[in-house]
Amino acid sequence: MLKKKIWKPFAGVVFLITLASAALAAFALIRLDILPEKYLLLFFALEAAALLAVALLLYAGINKKPGGARRARRAVGFFFCILIVAGNFFASSVLTDFDRTKEIIGGGRERVALVGVYVPRGDAAQTLADTASYRYGVLGGFEKGNSDYALSEIKNRLGAAVDAREYASISEAITALRGGEVRALAVNENYLDLLAEGESFGGLAEELRLIEEFEVPLTEAASGDAGAGSLFGSLLPSRPERTEQLSAAEKVEKNKSLVLYLSGSDTRAATLSTGRSDVNILMVIDPVSDQILLVNTPRDYYVPNPALGGGMDKLTHCGLFGAYNSMTALEELYGVEIDNYCQINFTGFEKLIDALGGVTLNNPRAFSSSSGYFFPEGEITLDGAQALAYGREREAFGDGDLARGRNLMRLIAAMVDKAKSDGASLLMNYPSILDSLEGMFATDLSPDEISALVKLAIRDLSRWEVRSTGVSGNGGMMRTAAGGDVPLYVMWPDEAQVSRTAAAIEKVLRGERISEDELG
Questions:
Q1: pLDDT tens digits for 72-104?
Q2: Which residue from 163, 269, 351, 403 has the fewest beta carbons nearer than 10 Å?
Q3: Burial bucket for residue 243 (CB in 10 Å: 0-12, 13-18, 19+)
């Protein structure tokens, strides 16, 4: 062991490094502002106790004669300094990553529309250059901005403009391609998926071949700013007006309840694009009663589409015009104001479950998914791919989309339970969790509001009670505002169930407890 005249400055440097690491972790924690005051004070108390302990171990008996006990104390003190420094730097790294991620995903972010160039599957064209002499079919109306953007990009790539014919609907454009009126299409990929729902275009995916893809940047515009010649993004509905102008952070601070819209996009792209919203769940959070109510609304619910002048449409189609459009449709359905949205695509959901280390839930009935997984009855543990298959499956059930909604809410409840019961695993996997959100998760919550909600969740983590409910109706074939003349499957709302669910939402918002019997 080092002699006294060497040990004192050496121990001083070691202690200063330890102290600096503690200060760095404390600064990162205060700056992030996600810990409730009681946990923050506990952190400072533990850090202070640890620093005092290592100081005593490093310096106790420094003026006494060397001995085995003193050498052992110094070795233990040095070892604990290494552990404390490593722990503080790890914590600082995780907190810094979280701060960076919430800045990236918070406050809304740029979206893209994916416009593809398609030719018939048997066409000779293999690249964009091969279509230079082709006549293109494009969409007008709400899609004109996307079409103009794509034609501009094609012109830049080919060095010359292409011949293009505009159509009022995707069904007209497909008919023109089938009849040889045009030889290629440049259309929003979401509309091909939408059209494939109809019986007359059921084999559409096998008819077409994608040869090029363009990303059209989208932004939500201020109310009244939409113009016929502007990009599709400027036509996206803006945030709905609010009677109470409190942010989510202010509501958390005042112990007020709030409502979040959880949207699951049907895209699998590595970046979040506009698309049909296959998952539409309201999360009603009341910090007074520590209740979370999850409300599922089927994707096929036949509701007014705010972006298309209130024309009757499937709820899932509302997502084609942005999350705020879906929020407005749900607000009108339930008569409730929604504070913010969180949207994740299928790829992001799969990665998030894996980052959590999987989830465990109780499956009420055995079934096999169309993707090849078998889920037995009883308690099951799912990884990301299995959870995605479990949450997406509807063909295995007689009530299809309704069963899928119930399974999705079981998954969300399982994720909450995972966080409540396995905090250590959650902390260790935090970097992976953050990575899973980048590019595939979007929210209009500001970074400060994200911090406030995390703080709220941590404050009473073990006390949150999650309940779920949903609505249903009768199905049939109808034309839709987004689908045009092609009849698609829709579900007419059961007004009694909608009223019952709206009443349950209002009860939670008032801070009153609800029972399973009230949810039906």
A1: 888 888 899 999 999 899 888 878 877 777 777
A2: 163
A3: exposed
